[in-house]
Amino acid sequence: MATPYRPADALRSPRYAGVRTFARLPLVPEPELGVDAVVLGAPFDTATSFRPGARFGPEAVRSASALLRPWHPTLAVDVFGSSSTADGGDLGVVPGNAEATAARLAEDLGGWLDAGATPVVVGGDHSILLGELRAHAARHGPLALLLLDAHADVWEDHCGERLFGGTVIRRAVEEELIDPQRSLLAGVRGPLYAEADLEAARELGFELITGDELRALGPGEYSQRVLTRTAGAHCFLSFDIDVIDPAFAPGTGTPEVAGLLPHEALPLLRSLAGTSFVGFDLVEVAPPYDGPGQTTAMLAANIVWEMLALRLVSAA
């Protein structure tokens, strides 16, 4: 049996040394059997609705991830020692073309799924989700989507474009990639164009929890709502960094005030232990708007680490 992939030993080589892969994991640029979990980049941002820059998100998150260590004290798992984990480099994208990018992402990600790896994809704007869901749904059928996001992303179009960051969830429903009746959108907040912006998600069949409601629920009741909603389904978790308050995550394309605090968001994620996850993504990190301490990228790297930990305690 091949030696499982692990990060470089930080007691032999300091964490600030070496080429920047996620958490200093080995780079495995092509799908390979024996990789249990893989971190992948999707550097595409031409479907953003406001500030561009998320094409540089994977690079920034990889750089910030050098600080991570393997042991998760809350979930009591060795995130990197319990399975073979690699950085798979970046998936294919087509600059300026969201639909062509979705097709490339679905094809490239499908190779990793065929090899048996659970992917965590780092965007990129939220339009990358469509390609991911196409790859997963081709193997599992319609998925239960768990979304943590300041926006529901169910618009019909934007300036005539049917695929961009704010329409991706509606397109996924139309293609029957997700089952709205088993999906939950949480953290939505901020000014709207009209009341219909929220009602559109519910009309599609989603359970929608606003940001204020999510904070009032707390991890315990949130996880129960998820368990009830998704029971028996294959789940995909998509985390848009703009669900976090911009005081802590300013580096994003469409910031909204009064978001979750980091110490609120992490327990919400950990409360999902035992959910049947088949894939994850973290999107909308835009480094040009981050602070000098790279607080957005650092938080995003830790969220990816939390996703890798959730995979180890997944019921899938």
Please outline what is shown here.
The protein has eight helices and ten strands. A hairpin with a 4-residue loop joins strand 2 (71-72) and strand 3 (77-78). The protein is α/β, with parallel strands linked by helices and 316 residues long.
Which keywords apply here?
316 residues, alpha/beta, Arginase, Chain A, two-stranded antiparallel ribbon, 8 helices
Structure characterization notes:
The structure is a single chain. The protein contains 8 helices and 10 strands. With 316 residues, it is an alpha/beta fold. It has a single domain, classed as Arginase, Chain A (3-Layer(aba) Sandwich), CATH 3.40.800.10. The strands form 2 sheets. An 8-stranded parallel beta sheet has the order 4-1-5-10-9-6-7-8, sandwiched between helices. It starts with 36 loop residues before the first strand and ends with a helix.
Structural domains: how many? 1
Secondary-structure element series: EHEEEHEHEHEHEHEHEH
C-alpha Rg (nearest Å): 18 Å
Going across the biggest sheet, name each strand in turn.
4-1-5-10-9-6-7-8
What share of residues are in beta strands? 15-25%
* Amino-to-carboxy terminus distance: 24 Å
Q: DSSP helix count?
A: 8
Average residue pLDDT: 95
Topology (SSEs and partners):
Layout: E1 37-42, H1 57-64, E2 71-72, E3 77-78, E4 85-90, H2 98-114, E5 118-123, H3 128-140, E6 144-148, H4 168-174, E7 184-188, H5 196-203, E8 207-210, H6 211-230, E9 235-240, H7 262-270, E10 277-283, H8 295-312
Parallel strand pairs: 1-4, 1-5, 5-10, 6-7, 6-9, 7-8, 9-10
Antiparallel strand pairs: 2-3
